[in-house]
Specification:
Chain lengths: ~325, ~220
């Protein structure tokens, strides 16, 4: 079971959110579901950032319980098993200092930017080259999820898609006298909406589902919301070179790169979420994993379809039907 | 008694200081009063004087961007007039991209403003979250002033487009925009990079690079 202190801030926020948006029944339902999991001894810490000494001592007990539960429930996790033993002291010391600030203060967000250049590079490499036993969250995040990677990778991807789509449309229509080049600036907002909602709403839903399942099945590992956002953000990193490859107007190259990107990012996500759901009912974990993969595929194919015009489609409008198609396919 | 009390330091006439104890120190008279007089007097100066002083400050900062040395002029006396001027110039010059449908055209006036200011704010927040020591407005000031080479490139591009709109003019425009993009990024990192923690400099420089790249792209794809 996740230590209660870690997600109390998050679910209190959700309760207030639903309350103020007048969804009283959802508020009541959430309160009922999570009521047994509130640790009332610790609830004083939610209100203020003080009393560090008390926080650390309670945190120690929870850390020990959490780690021992993990070890008994999941003996074959892999790399993570060695880590808690050696970095236990560190996590005990650091976890007392983390997450003391309320979520509306600047300091709360500063804890998510506590990484160096080396860590970001390591995480990006880890997301582009997934390895069967290396769970992204355990190997690279190590309880230090960051918001830098997800945010800037998403922003870069948005601009990469808009710019590459523009260049690709221009190249496809190069010999066409009827075509007037336009920068198509509005597509940036559409790309931004699509990518940011994938990178934030899907993790929110997934976190909710994992929390609900871990409520039902007691020894299930559940990741924190920030860790899930982090994995999703870094898994989009492999699409940046793919999107740049899509500029080249060869269909086989475009579909090859989309397949490779889908495999890599899909495998990062499934390897990460497999330990979290495998103790559950088979139907449930198949449903969760296939939903993850489906959303990934939808994003990739949707972006490809909308922003990049197919090389064979456009000339058909301007030349004769069969002749046009034949010339284009020979050219490709 | 009254006699003794009336004479200053009267009781100390008999006291002698031993020669072993060195007596030293300095006496300084604070000169604060005259500065206050100076500041009050700016109320009386003509408006032209005030405006010219601000313009001279802005111009001075432009010169510092042209020759980016590690000086602290931009940082110490920050102001947002220069960025505002540059942003308005950029947005005005990017108008006039004649298209049939407004949907597929270039950025509107408000869009340029939003990109420049929201982009600068996001980069500033990013550098502060990573532990940078620059204040919020100092960082905005630096990022805004370093748009100047790109604005100059836009002026050159419009002139080139007046002459011709073919592959050669595109090559010239590409060259000019790339050079000014490199200059902007180099200038802003020269000012920003010193205030960042040592292991995170690349993390702070990358968003600046992306920001100027996007502005450069908008300038390059401008077609009247």
């Amino acid at each position: 079971m996740k230590d209660p202190f870690e997600f109390q801030g998050e679910f209190i926020f959700l309760i207030y959110f639903f309350y103020y948006s007048k969804k009283i029944y959802i508020t009541y339902f959430m309160f009922l579901c999570f009521f047994p999991m509130i640790d009332f001894d610790d609830s004083g810490n939610l209100l203020g950032p003080s009393r560090d000494a008390v926080t650390i001592s309670i945190e120690d007990e929870d850390e020990v319980k959490f780690n021992s539960q993990k070890k008994t429930a999941d003996p074959s996790v892999g790399a993570y098993e060695e880590d808690p033993v050696s970095s236990d002291d560190q996590t005990k010391l650091l976890s007392g200092q983390k997450k003391n600030a309320a979520f509306w203060t600047f300091e709360y967000y500063q804890q998510f930017f506590d990484i160096d250049t080396y860590h970001v590079k390591e995480r990006i490499l880890g997301s582009v080259l997934p390895w069967p036993r290396k769970n992204f969250i355990h190997t690279y995040l190590r309880r230090n999820p960051d918001l830098y990677g997800p945010f800037w990778i998403c922003t870069t991807l948005v601009f990469a898609i808009a710019i590459s789509g523009n260049i690709s449309t221009f190249l496809v229509n190069l010999g066409n006298p009827n075509y007037k080049y336009t920068p198509e600036f509005r597509k940036v907002t559409i790309a931004a909406t699509a990518i940011f909602s994938y990178a934030w709403l899907v993790p929110l839903a997934l976190w909710g589902v994992l929390l609900w399942r871990s409520n039902k099945v007691t020894n299930l590992v559940s990741y924190s919301f920030m860790e899930i956002v982090c994995v999703y953000g870094y898994s989009l990193a492999v699409y940046i070179p793919a999107v740049i490859i899509w500029i080249v107007p060869f269909m086989w190259l475009q579909w090859l790169s989309i397949m490779i990107a889908l495999c890599l990012s899909g495998s990062v996500l499934t390897i990460t979420f497999w330990p979290a759901v495998r103790d559950d009912h088979p139907k449930v974990y198949i449903a969760i994993l296939s939903t993850i993969v489906t959303f990934n595929v939808l994003l990739a194919v949707g972006c490809k379809m909308y922003f990049f015009s197919k090389p064979e489609e456009l000339p058909q409008k301007f030349s004769g039907p069969t002749v046009g198609v034949k010339i284009t396919s020979n050219h490709v | 008694m009254a006699d003794d009390a009336s004479k200053p330091f009267a009781g100390l006439a008999d006291v002698s200081i031993s020669e072993d104890i060195a007596v030293e120190g300095d006496i300084s008279v604070p000169v604060g009063t005259s500065r206050r007089d100076e500041e009050l007097s700016t109320l009386d100066e003509p408006v032209k004087e005030t405006v010219l002083r601000d313009l001279r400050a802005v111009g001075n900062k432009f010169v510092h961007v042209l020759y980016p040395k590690r000086s602290s002029a931009l940082l110490r006396d920050w102001d947002l007039w220069g960025p505002l001027l540059l942003c308005v110039t950029l947005a005005l010059l990017l108008q006039g991209g004649a298209t049939e449908t407004q949907e597929q055209g270039g950025p509107q006036f408000a869009e340029v403003f939003v990109i420049v200011w929201v982009g600068s704010i996001v980069i500033t927040l990013n550098s502060k979250l990573l532990g940078g020591t620059l204040s919020f407005f100092q960082s905005l000031c630096v990022l805004g002033y370093c748009i100047m080479p790109l604005t100059a490139a836009l002026v050159v591009c419009r002139l080139v487009l007046l002459l011709a709109n073919n592959a050669v003019s595109f090559a010239v425009r590409l060259l000019v925009v790339s050079a000014s993009f490199g200059w902007s990024t180099f200038a802003s990192t020269a000012f920003l990079v010193d205030s960042q923690p040592p292991n995170r400099k690349a993390l702070v420089v990358y968003p600046v690079f992306l920001f100027y790249f996007v502005i450069g792209w908008i300038i390059l794809t401008f077609s009247p």
